[in-house]
Amino acid sequence: MSDANKVRNKVVLVTGGSRGIGAGIARRFAAEGFRVAIACRSGREAADKVLGEITAAGGQGIVVIGDVAKPEDAKAMVAEVVARFGTIDVLVNCAGIAEYWPFEATDPALFHATFDTNVYGTVAMIQAALPHMPAPGGRIINFSSALATRPIPGASIYAASKAAVSALSHALAKEFGPRGITVNAIAPGVIETEMTAGILAERSASILAMTPLGRIGQTDDIAGIALFLASPDANWVTGRTIVADGGVS
Description:
Elements: E1 11-15, H1 20-31, E2 35-40, H2 44-56, E3 60-65, H3 71-85, E4 90-93, H4 108-129, E5 139-143, H5 156-176, E6 182-188, H6 197-210, H7 219-230, E7 241-244
């Protein structure tokens, strides 16, 4: 983004912002001049560390704590951001649960934990933030997964939840379009984070072999896409799920 004045003092709320892709997005947006709200359910220490890096670099931000799957928490986190910054220009729904179980072992607890956070958490945060977003001009960026369209064994419930996020994003883009609010989703492949450490320890060689770009994705690869979708350059992009997996798909 070449013109920092386009985003200076705009506010982004990033759920799942204490680690991994969410933390990378928080740092990248702050570096571009956004005021950043880092939302997390737990891991306050990690969130404070990200915030410390942002403020040390001259940025502004806060940490808000809550469970996105609980509507009262979603509303409380949004209220705290609005009380501090006055608005929410961009909502990034990055909080998620990823557990891979054989289908026969799937139980109601796994299903509800996955769908409550990945799908309903996205719904709850959008419902809470929407009244405080500029219309026109608001941006909603959700997180799907490359596994939504190319699932692997053991990922059936997770993949289904992320496919639901893509469908939700497409539907809301049509519903919110007349207000001038865009809704898009990002569908990453394997990105090197704390969450994927186990997968990479087991399968990094095979992942590299199937990836045309020949490397493992990094959080900044995804943060750049989120920044584009939040920028004026993406004014005409809505209802899309952008797959970012180094060409595996």
